[in-house]
Amino acid sequence: MGSKLGDYVKLREILKYIEERRHEDGGYCFVSLLNETNINDTYYAVKIYDLLGMKVPEQEKTIGFLYDSLKPQQAVVAVSMAIEGLAILGAKDLAKDGLSLVFEKYDPLQGKFAVGLGGSEEFGTATPLEATYWMLRALKATNHKISPEEKEKIKEFIESFRKGDGYGLKQATTTMTYQAIYSLNSLDYKIPKTSHFHRCEVYGGFTEVPYSLPPYLEPTFYALRGLKLLGERPRYVKEHINFIRALQNPNGGFRRSLEMGISNFQNTYRALRALDDLLGF
Questions:
Q1: pTM of the model
Q2: Rounded-to-10 torsion of CA 270, 224, 161, 166
Q3: Where are the chain's structural domains?
Q4: Residues 13-24: pLDDT tens digits?
Q5: Into which CATH architecture does domain 2-280 fall?
C-alpha cells in the first residue's frame, strides 16, 4: 500500500513529519514544540502507520500512553479513539478495559447518547451522532456484541437526524451522513441509499453541503468513504487525486484546503486514506 501511495505523495516526508512529533511518553503532538501529547494525534499516528503497513516505533510506549489516557474525564470520542488505537496495536485486552468508561456515558436503553459531553474532533463540541459513530467504532474494534434491543434504540436515535436522504442537525451534511450510514451498517442494518455525496461533488474535492464552495479535505474524506460503503463511484477520480495531492505542505503533512491551513495528523491520515480509496475505484 505504501509504495502505491508513494507514486502520488511524498511518503518519506510524511513519515519524517510524524516521527519528529513523537514524544518520550509514546504519545504524539502535531505541534512538535509542545509536550502536550494527546489521544487525537496519537490515534491518527497509529492509523497512518497501520494504513502504510508499518509498525509504530516503540509501540509499547504508545500502547502505554493510550491505556493511561483512558480516564473518566475523557469524552466518549476520545475514549473510543484510544480503544480503537489499542486494538490496532494488538492490545485488545487493554482496549476492552476501556469499554466500561464508554458505557458510563453511553447507554441507549436508558436514553443516554453522550449528548453535550464535548470532545469532538470536528466541531468543538461533539454532536450526539458523532459520539455514536465513535462509540460503534470502539465496539467493532473490540468485537463487542450489541444486543438487539440496543441496536434498535441506536437505530431510532440515528434516524432522528435524517434530513431528506441525508443526515444532519438543521440540514444534511457530508460528515453526519457518513457517520449515520457507517453506524447503521455496523449495526447490521441495510444502508439507506443517498444522493447527498454526489450532490456535494465538485471538480476536485467534495463540500460539506450541496452546491457550495470551496471543497475541503474532511468532506472529501467522508464522501469517498461513504461512496465506497454504498458501492458507488465518484465522477471525478483524477481531479480528486490532484486536489488531495495539492494539499501536502512542505513539512510533509497535509492541510484541509487549497487556500490555507497548517498540517496536522488528522488531515494527513484523511489525505492518505482518501487517496487509497480513490486508487481503488
A1: 0.95
A2: 150
A3: 2-280
A4: 999 999 999 999
A5: Alpha/alpha barrel (1.50)
